Amino acid sequence: MQRVYLYSRYERFWHWTQAFLILFLALTGFEIHGSYRLFGYESAVSLHNNAAWILIVLIIFTIFWHFTTGEWRQYMPTMENLRAQMEYYVTGIFRNAPHPTKKTTLSKLNPMQRLVYLGLKILFIPVMVISGIIYMFYRYQFDGAIQSLGFEDLGLVAAIHTLGAYILLAFVVVHVYLITTGHTLTSNLRAMITGWELLEEEEEEEERSI
């Protein structure tokens, strides 16, 4: 095993900040829906909106970071070893089977992770942002420029936004579980905190040969 600096400071910053914001948006969002009372309705709306704008700014900066560093390539989907990876998560992991894919600095995500994360970035996150903005600015006057977005009923928008919230929460739950599937129970978590992860030497040899 060799200790490798796998996750940069910004990569860890946006990962943990995004996770906190998603959970905070869920906390305030479900209070707005009347599921419980914590901050109070008006405060929950204000906190939810402010957190949403912070998340949008973070997304813009992170898109810029991905393209300027070339890290966007990490999310390019591949069918290679996809079935093996699915079988590993379904049965292989419970019988201590070897991991079907190798992690390197050039390929941090396995085939399933690539598909899921790409779907989040190009589908679910944009849907949440767009539906949230529509909900936020519906019949909202901003310096007289915005009177109405033309939606007669917010029911569909609210349903889409809420469904997206459940999907994101489900992703977080699965993500927390998958954290425990590294070399040790906490190795993936430590790597995303410190940036350093233990990789097998053969993985590093493959990387140097690319």
3D structure, described in words:
The protein is mainly α and 210 residues long. It has a single domain, classed as Up-down Bundle (Fumarate Reductase Cytochrome B subunit), CATH 1.20.950. Helix content is 62%, strand content 4%. It is built from 7 helices and 2 strands; from the N terminus they run E-H-H-H-H-H-H-E-H. A two-stranded antiparallel sheet has the order 1-2. Helix 1 packs antiparallel against helix 2. It is elongated. It starts with a strand and ends with a helix. The C terminus is likely disordered.
Q: What's the number of domains?
A: 1
Percent helix, as a range, is 55-70%
Q: Give the mean pLDDT.
A: 85
CATH fold title? Fumarate Reductase Cytochrome B subunit
The termini sit apart by 20 Å
Q: Care to count the β-strands?
A: 2
Count of alpha and pi helical runs: 7
> How does the helix and strand content classify structurally?
mainly alpha
How much β-strand is present in the residues?
A: under 5%
Order of helices and strands: EHHHHHHEH
The CATH architecture assignment turns out to be Up-down Bundle
Shape, per Cα inertia axes? elongated
Q: Secondary-structure blueprint of this entry?
A:
Blueprint: E1 2-5, H1 9-32, H2 41-69, H3 82-90, H4 111-137, H5 155-179, H6 187-194, E2 196-199, H7 201-209
Antiparallel strand pairs: 1-2
Defining key terms:
single chain; Fumarate Reductase Cytochrome B subunit; two-stranded antiparallel ribbon; 7 helices; 4% strand
